[in-house]
Amino acid sequence: MPDETRRLRRSLLLREAWRTVAARPGAAVLSAAATTLGIALLVLTVGLTATAERRVAAGFDALRATEVLLTPTGPDQRGPTTAELARAARISGVEAVGVLAQYAPADATVTGRPTHVSVDPASIDHGAVKALQLDVDRGSAFDPWLVETGLPAVLVGAELADRLGGVTVDGTSSISVGGVQHLVAGILSDSPRRPSLRDTVLVPHDPDGRDPATLEIVLRTQPGAAQQVADLAPLALGPTDPGSWTASAPPDPDTLRVGIESGVRNALLGVSAAVVVIAGLSIGNATFVSVLQRRREIGVRRAMGATAGHVRLQILTEAALVGGLGGIAGSSVGILALVVIANLQRASPVMPAFAVPAAAGAGVLLGLLAGIFPARSASRLEPVEAMRAG
Amino acid sequence: MGDQRWSVRLRSVSKSYDDTAVLRNIDVAVPTNGYLSVVGVSGSGKSTLLNILGLMDTFQTGAYEIDGRDATALTADARAELRATSIGFVFQQFNLLHERSVADNVALGLLYAGVPRRQWDQRVEELLDYVGLSHRTLAQARTLSGGEQQRVAIARAVAKRPSILLCDEPTGNLDEATSAECMGLLERLHSDGMTLIVVTHDLRLAERADRTVTIRDGVVSPAYS
Hints:
The complex is a heterodimer. By secondary structure, chain A is an alpha+beta fold. Chain A has helices at about 5, 10-25, 25-60, 80-90, 125-130, 145-150, 160-165, 225-235, 255-295, 295-305, 310-345, 355-380, 385-390, and strands at about 65-70, 95-100, 105-110, 115-120, 120-125, 135-140, 155, 175, 180-190, 200-205, 215-220, 245-250. Chain A has 2 domains: about 10-60 and about 255-390, no CATH class; about 65-250, no CATH class. Helix content of chain A is about 55%, strand content about 15%. In chain A, helix 11 packs antiparallel against helix 12 (about 355-380). By secondary structure, chain B is of the alpha/beta class. The interface between A and B is medium-sized, with 31 and 27 residues.
């Protein structure tokens, strides 16, 4: 007989393996379940990482990438003059300029209440309210009338207000900071660029007041202008002595992103890889048990003329099919889980295009690897020995 | 007998498992298109003899020719090739793939014989018609009666048009009427040119063959030489 008649066509072998798998749907589903779980975790990990990347990138672009900080180069924390600030505000790409100074810790308490909290007081000027995008939902940031009166007034961060208790903006409550009574002008409800300000008190910045612990000029820029503004700002502030101010531009977004996510991603990938290994063992075990149960069938196939190679290929193909089915199901489950989680986080789910075909391929590969031992075992069964099986 | 063409011919074949002799110096020969029945009690060695004839098992000493070809030194793959093309098996337990359809079971005989896929549907249809089961083509094998299962097994065995059909107690699990029906089918195949070898413990069945040999304690009588 010519050789080509004995060489089984791959399509016929695939058909036979598929029909064998499809004839036992329950067993196939159970075998594929572990793979589904492992691949779903892998897909979810890849999707979550991509979604987080997009989210961090968006947040980073919106806030950090549009901010330049200027700090005095020497030990002298002298604040800028009004003229210096005006020159900085005129730099192309600058949207707002302000001063933020931090002072040594002080004790804060609401008059008549027992709670004492240690805070790091800060001072800001009117420009800093815009530059830092502060949101005051009760009272006002710096009411011109209040500033003109010269009365000591403070903005209280919302978190600090909660901790202290009894803070109102109707003029009936005052707050003592470092032993000095202040009128509460407003509650700082949001500070996206400096979340720590929600847990302290803010006073109007006084250029002639006591020296702060740290001082910085905050320049909010248009997107993409930060680096250029950082280059020009020291010169604008000190044309004759540009070295007196040090500008810090935002770090490279890509570097920041990778730094933020690599740890989380590696941990998730590690867990997923462990589950995938368990899935492989599960397929291998299920296939091996199936081979033991199907010894008589293998004997019949050998009696019909199947060679050991045909049997080996069939078992391997069946395992690969189960793995592939698990891979496809796992991709679907992973994508579904990603959509649910992203919606809960109010983020847009992002899935790399390669993830789904790669997951199905990984399932097939897993099935093939898991099927090697059972397939070898099945192919080594002697026909007469297999036929004797019950 | 010198010009006789043999379908199968065993000469001085001995087979033992460990130290237990199962077949001793067996000589069995069946002419092309012959019909042989082998009678023996359980454990006499008749199934081992059938397995050797069907190239499912090997032996330690002796020689075996099948359709004029020396089968003694064939490799495992070459034996499988002969099983795929020239030898059909019918078992007492039917041995169908229960989760598969009747058509799939019959097509199994075509798969390993290398029959092109485009011929399968017609061949399966013809075979099921031949065994009177064309109305059960898509039924699951497990849903068939014993007689129907054996008829499907016969269709599967002859799907590749083998020259030799080996039957191991083909009516052992069937009632009298169904047994007669299946034997009629097998004998029709024999009339069409197939060599038929039937192992049985049923003497009435054995008497229907052209020739009957008895196997007892691994020895065939009357010996044929």
